[in-house]
Specification:
heterodimer; A: about 475 residues; alpha/beta; about 35% helix; B: alpha/beta; Aconitase, domain 4; four-stranded antiparallel sheet; four-stranded parallel sheet; 8 helices; globular; binds iron/sulfur cluster
Chain lengths: ~475, ~200
């Protein structure tokens, strides 16, 4: 039988198959953070066991860290306690730990690739659903619960039933102003938030081949938002060039051995998927969400759909619009907004800051907008400074914060106040996700930038065309 | 973490017929700061259950004394969103042992099975029947029979079977968890690991 990329990576990691049960899957890389790990560490302590392969687990602090004054003690006592526990656990079990203030600190899914922890053909897990990000490298990467974190610490394995496979092809050329985030939001809007539940997705086709590694990470990151366990893209020259020479990337003979393995990682011609869907890139325009799940997104020049044409319950749909204080048929363009959040493991990489800066350059932040610009890591932060983006941002009236998850899930102080609208480059617009009562509009860094300088939802292409003419 | 064994559960049920209930609603992120698995039930559905001044919202079903029981009946795509196991802990800690829906998000389903909450997936039609039975009589009893993999509305006798794999079923019946299993095959894992290219 012809094998898919997913089959190859999965099957080569199965330690044992349990009949009519899950597979015992070996995990190559395990990332932990302060929020979903304390109970898992407590679990192995209670059982009186050690971490089986401490060198395969990496700890970083990100979810509830402050994004200003990181040199000062963390004010919130509960967050401080979790951070301290992570440090203590990492020390006790010999796990590398990149805490607050460490030069390598940042969001778990941003630092993994930056330091070569993320590798093609690896199995990667973390107690965070956006672990799917690492699939951009041709890895099988997915989020796990705390019991599973404990399993990995104890045995470097988890018990998983092999998901079904789906291939999503996007063919053709992307339109002007359309970014990887728009591609992902478009796919989710077509499939709904449960359209890929039970599946592992491979993204294929011209659009993903052309995409940068950063863009592929954005797309794979959002796989979970259509219910998929994860998403992956076959490694190619871009992938290999990206991982080469990074700190934890294999070296010399190890590299050759790994490279030989990576060269086998592609879906064979004629391999069967349980489901296959193809989209035309020409149909995608800059996207924005109007509701309370990431599937509720539309092209920015469209109106909010009428309840009758939306699949699923009309009551649920209306409840969602009521939360947003929007009406069916409303145009999204021109809606006043209060906050802009650029950051998260979805769009907190250097390419995202470049895109944002390209629009705000020569303009000014709108007075009614509070903008939080949060790099995904110290490495991203350093690049923003080195490339001169910071100077441009500051001239336009923006400030840069320090790395962390920040307003993506609002566990730290960065909460959008109740009733306020935020255009966010993160991944979830659930009720209260960015703070109790907060209203989130998910969009690309370009759309976020256009909102930041105009104070309302604006099609970035209008500003980009202007730029082109000037 | 060990949990109570699950065999046959007969209980009244709490209806929550909303679609796409995500884990941020089940337990908002600001309650994830605990370092022990305790007390999450108090914050289950926090923002739907309480006003910002912490007074209960009377319209929410958990605050309605006519509904109670160990079974939560949710709408389609229950548990979407983050991987936080805290959502399943909150459901368990509140006192639910079973969640019924016509469709579950993957990670949430796994997490439930790992912490002793049985996710029972039924057809959309059967879900409707359950909801109607509870609407007609909030004290209507539902029986969830794990050994037989069958859910029954006791009043009318209407029933449907549900799926669960043999391995997870045995775990639930015995209150075992996966780590017990994994620790037993450690030598095999070590051998496997020695050969990895990465
Ligand atoms: S940025 Fe958001 S989605 Fe990403 S790891 Fe942090 S909390 Fe999770």
């Amino acid at each position: 039988m012809k094998k898919t990329l997913f089959d190859k990576v999965w099957d080569s990691h199965v330690v044992q198959r349990i009949e009519n049960g899950p597979d015992v899957l070996f995990i190559d890389r395990h990332m932990v953070h302060e929020v979903t790990s304390p109970v898992a560490f407590l679990g192995i302590k209670t059982r009186g066991i050690r971490v089986m392969y401490p060198e395969k687990t990496f700890a970083t602090a990100d979810h509830n860290t402050p994004t200003i004054n990181q040199h000062l003690p963390v004010e919130d006592p509960l967050s401080a306690k979790q951070l301290k526990m992570l440090e203590e656990n990492a020390n006790e079990y010999g796990i590398s730990y990149w805490g607050l203030g460490h030069e390598k600190n940042g969001i778990v899914h941003v630092v993994g690739p930056e330091y070569g922890i993320t590798l093609p053909g690896a199995t990667i897990v973390c107690g965070d659903s956006h672990t799917s990000t690492h699939g951009a490298f041709g890895a099988i990467a997915f989020g796990i619960g705390t019991s599973e974190v404990e399993m990995v610490l104890a045995s470097q394995c988890i018990m998983q039933t092999k998901p079904k496979s789906m291939r999503i092809n996007v063919e053709g050329q992307l339109n002007f102003g359309v970014t990887p985030k728009d591609v992902a939001l478009y796919i989710i809007s077509q499939l709904t938030t449960s359209g890929a539940t039970g599946y592992f997705v491979e993204y294929a086709g011209e659009v993903f081949r052309e995409m940068t590694m950063e863009g592929r990470m954005t797309v794979c990151n959002l796989s979970i938002e259509m219910g998929a366990r994860g998403g992956m893209i076959a490694p190619d020259e871009k992938t290999i060039a990206y991982v080469r020479g990074r700190e934890f990337t294999p070296k010399e003979a190890e590299w050759d051995k790994a490279k030989a393995y990576w060269d086998t990682l592609y879906t064979e011609e004629g391999a069967q998927f349980d489901k296959e869907i193809t989209f035309d890139a020409a149909n995608i325009e800059p996207m924005i969400t109007y509701g309370t799940n990431p599937g509720m997104g539309i092209g920015i020049s469209n109106g909010i759909p009428m309840a009758e044409v939306v699949e699923g319950g009309v009551a649920t749909y209306r409840k969602s619009l009521q939360y947003m204080n929007f009406s069916e048929g409303d145009s999204m363009k021109g809606k006043e907004i209060d906050f802009v959040f650029l950051g998260s493991c979805t769009n907190g990489r250097i390419e995202d800051f470049r895109a944002f800066t390209s629009i705000v350059k020569g303009r000014k932040k709108a007075d009614n907008v509070t903008a939080w610009l949060v790099p995904g890591s110290h490495k991203v932060e350093a690049a923003i400074k080195e490339e001169g983006l910071l100077a441009i941002l500051e001239t336009a009236g923006f400030e840069l914060r320090e790395p962390g998850c920040s307003a993506c899930l609002a566990m730290n102080e960065d909460k959008i106040p109740a009733g306020k609208y935020a255009v966010s480059t993160s991944n979830r617009n659930f009720e209260g996700r960015q703070g109790p009562g907060a209203r989130t509009l998910l969009a690309s860094p370009l759309v976020a930038a256009a909102a930041a300088v105009t104070g309302k939802v604006t099609d970035p292409r209008e500003l980009m065309e202007e730029m082109a003419v000037n | 973490m060990a949990y109570d064994k699950f065999n046959i559960l007969t209980s009244t049920a709490v209806p929550l017929p909303i679609e796409n209930v995500d884990t941020d609603q089940i337990i908002p992120a600001r309650f994830l700061k605990a370092i022990e698995r305790k007390g999450f039930g108090d914050n289950l559905f926090r923002d739907w259950r309480y006003n910002s001044d912490n007074t209960p919202k009377e319209s929410f079903v958990l605050n309605n004394p006519i509904y109670s029981g160990k079974i939560l009946v949710g709408g389609k795509n229950f548990g979407s969103g983050s991987s936080r196991e805290h959502a399943a802990w909150a459901v368990y800690d509140y006192g639910f042992r079973c969640v019924v829906s016509s469709f579950f998000a993957d990670i949430f389903r796994n997490n439930c099975l790992n912490v002793g909450v049985l996710p029972v997936q039924v057809s959309a039609e059967f879900l409707e029947k359950i909801l109607r039975a509870i609407e007609a009589d909030p004290k209507a009893e539902i029986e969830v029979d794990l050994p037989e993999q069958r859910i029954t509305i006791l009043g009318s006798g209407e029933q449907e079977s549900f799926e669960i794999n043999d391995y997870k079923k045995a775990n639930m019946l015995n209150g075992f968890d996966d780590i017990d299993f994994l620790l037993n095959i450690k030598d095999g894992i070590r051998e496997f690991a020695a050969d990895r290219p990465l």
